[in-house]
Amino acid sequence: MQPNGQSTINRWWRVVGGLSMNLALGTLYGWSVFVAPLEARFGWKRAQTSMVFTIAVIVFALSFVLAGRIQDKFGPLPCSLAGGILVSLGFFLCSYTTSLTYLYICFGVIAGLGNGFGYATPIPVMAKWFPDKRGLAVGLAVGGYGAGSAIFGPLSQLKLIPAYGLPATFQILGAIFFVMTLVGALLLRNPPAGYKPAGWSPAQVKSAAAAREFSPGEMLRTRTFYLMWVGYALGCSAGLMVISQLVPFAKSVGIAAAALSTMTLVVGAFGNASGRILSGWMSDRLGRINVLRTMIGICIFAMPALYAAGSTVALLYAAVFVVYWCYGTQLSVNGVAAADFWGTKNAGVNYGILFTAWGVAGIIGPRIGGVLYDRYHNYQAAFYTAAGLAAVALLCELGARRPAVIGVVRA
Question: Model's pTM, two decimal places?
Fold first, then answer.
């Protein structure tokens, strides 16, 4: 058995691995910095380049289920290593883009697969190493996903693309991501069977479900799964509506280009990362569902507040930060809640199934913003509809409870 100090250092290295992996993967959120150079280079339309991100989101969400099963069966190394290789390869191949179809395959499919396989590993690994601080550890690991765009977005937009051009930027990023994800994959290992942190003893189990490991089929027979799935999908739809429409909304109210860049790449990313980390930490103390309810409740009011902020830069920054915080909360706390409610043995595939809600949100959110703007030629209806989706998500979370028994879900 390792000395207590060594054991503590050992498990915090897993957090470093998850952070390194997710910082690279999180550049998916920085896709917008490549849009204008691609459109200028090839003459493509916004709807065409936007489809790249949509494909990546869908592939990411769907591959997460398969990746979670592989992670549960074979361990984190092959899954995270495959994710790192795929996302790095996808970026590198984007440097040879000559057609939309090629770009859809390289960024949408290959990099999307890399995100699914890479992101599937840190949450189950953190849940096993940190039963005492599960929310904080998962939040720190996946917080890198929110922060990745804040680092590599400005680096690409302000330094790499102007200095080296778009193709070379894709190659440089691919090389950087390969190193980062390789380090992450090598650090992400499961603890020994029966591992418990030194000095920690589990709290008294309050229900039969808390003491057992649920298979995916058993999880799907609990009411809580469906309530959380709908809450996850609609809550993230509200956030992704804002993320997908923030740049055109800000331009429509006269925000200057410099302020716009800071808002989208720094303020939003920092809010996203803060929500993942600090809400994860709060959930250790206040409870997973309680934190989800609180942040989704705040989101209901933050959506119309963001619209009302208009061209007032300081108020807009504050509202963007809050909306991204609420969105980031759902990406970390739902993963921890899945491990708490249905166990860590099948945490990869179980959370992968729950995570399909995020993939659906990636379709619903942007569509709401685009369709309602086209109909009314302003964003008021879109922001208020997003608030309505958040309200329904809150109702679902209010109905969610720790599963106590396995039973057939009835209409």
Answer: 0.84
